[in-house]
Known about the structure:
By secondary structure, this protein is of the alpha/beta class. The chain is 63% helix and 8% strand. It has helices at residues 36-47, 54-62, 66-91, 97-103, 108-142, 155-172, 174-205, 208-221, 224-234, 245-250, 267-298, 314-341, 343-357, 371-389, 393-421, 425-448, 451-473, 487-496, 513-527, 572-587, 602-612, 617-628; strands at residues 10-12, 17-19, 480-485, 502-505, 536-542, 550-559, 562-569, 592-596, 637-641. The strands form 2 sheets. A 7-stranded mixed beta sheet has the order 3-6-7-5-4-8-9, with helices on both faces. Helix 3 (66-91) packs across helix 15 (393-421), helix 5 packs across helix 17 and helix 7 packs antiparallel against helix 12. It is elongated, with a radius of gyration of 30 Å.
Amino acid sequence: MAGPIIPPRQYHKNLGRWLLNDNRSGKEGRHSRHPWWQVMCLTGVDYFSTLGYQPGIAALAAGALSPLATLILVLLTLFGALPIYRRVAATSPHGEGSIAMLEHLLSWWQGKLFVLCLLGFVATDFIITMTLSAADATAHIVENPLVPHFLHGQVVGITLVLIALLGAVFLKGFQEAIGLAVFLVATYLLLNLVTIGVGAYQILQNPVVITNWQTGLLANHGNPLAMLAISALLFPKLALGLSGFETGVAVMPLVKGSGSDAENHPRGRIRNTHKLLTTAAVIMSFFLITSSLVTTLLIPAAEFQAGGKANGRALAYLAHFYLGDIFGTVYDLSTIAILWFAGSSAMAGLLNIVPRYLPRYGMAPDWARASRPLVLVYTAIAFVVTILFKANVEAQGGAYATGVLVLMSSAAFAVTLAAHRRRSQRGRIIFGTITFVFLYTTIVNIIERPEGIRIAGFFIGTIIATSLISRVWRSTELRVEKIVMDDVAQSFIAQESQGTVRLIANRPNESDVREYCLKEQEVRDDNHIPPTDSILFLEIQVSDASEFTETIWVRGVQVGDYRILQAKGAAVPNTIAAILLYIRDQTGKLPHAYFGWAEGNPIQYLLRFILFGEGDIAVVTREVLRKAEKDPEQRPGIHVGG
Length: 642
């Protein structure tokens, strides 16, 4: 029979600390579940809000070829990104996303550093989503003809106010964020539909604009094949139109499933997330194509340039021009609101993804599992980024696109690898091709806008540095989620409870009778243990030193007359300390553990402990016990002889 399991997320007096499992950021999620269409609106405030600037960016990048380049982007959305993220949703239904799929490629520290790098791109994508969208909302504010002129010089200040308001919404509560997202998305899409509909009507009334567009295309590019080839080269500049998929899977824990869902594979939640992703992709594809057509055909090319009235706000230009300043102002207000709130999906994604990894790695304090402190941290970071970039939309665009494309490329690679492991030839070809397209798009974007990879590099470096500092700072925590002992181990402890509980820490070599006999004699001589007192051996094998917390499984083994407790743990001292406290509370007696002196450079032992979970075992074990049990009278004894 397995031994008692230490209750997770409950203050357990046996261990003298909070033993937290990953539930707050894991399977159950930290917020209540919502219908898929509501969660789609939350991710949609980011995804759909790109309509505020995407048509203008497309026109600047591709000119008259903008509709063709946008068509390629739509095809990549529907037949590339959508199939990829449907697979990601099925594989990582608890919001881990493609990072979790790739986490298993590498073990030990290589895997952790790989995840930290990907988290750097996540931070680049999501933080820049918050700052860029708020900055673009500010641009719509100051460029509205009804806004007082004195606000034109307050771009940074207005952007900071918008970011602060976004943080306040999440501090207030997540339910408010979902409800507001539904209202903003519904209003914004309706106003865009009206604006695009009026634009389409104007084109039908003046078909000459179509003729002029076709004539210009043929004059500049010769033939349709040349147009398609150039559009294929230009479409990576339109990559911001792909921004909603990563947040779509990051917020999966918010999606309501069915009552029969199994926690390890919630089919209802996966099915509803597929609906979310597909519906969002279809809606966005429709608006991308139609908005690109009407803006390209109806807006003079000069207006798209810097200083032009359609620069960064092409659809707003049409709303004012054809429907008047009153409707245009309503459209501006809706655009401002959704751009401001676009950061909410990024905030929700960060609140779900970061606590899932960094605290589990020991690379963030335990308070990082809680929402409100993280909201304050992310808001502060967004403040710094806004000030550094002076709330300039164009300056942040490269970093945004880099973050989006790297994450999409990693997702495509993860799905391709999964297909390879399933030995699916068809999957390898299809998803491998999609991966190649995303890699091409990412490389082109990085070459043309290298500032994006530099900003991402800054985030990666900052995350790795702070994470490693946190890991070192927390290394002497108990680091145990629960302890499970088998029947034999339990019987050994029960036998020892009749007298003084003594354990000899042993690093096994041959694991034969002779080894244990010599070790016992050495320890008894060094520590003056009476020959009549019985002893247990305790052996710890390092499982994965890069892990921070885990379940400790202890089994009892008998070799001749010698009884051994064998366990696996991420760090030997922490595991020993946890077992000693467990024995104390099971027997009601203070156990005594016996060690030999470590010989060698203490700095070298310190590094061995941090990186490999070993080091100067006795010293570190005592420190772990000191931090875990504040009462010296209740601490197990640590003895070092020799």
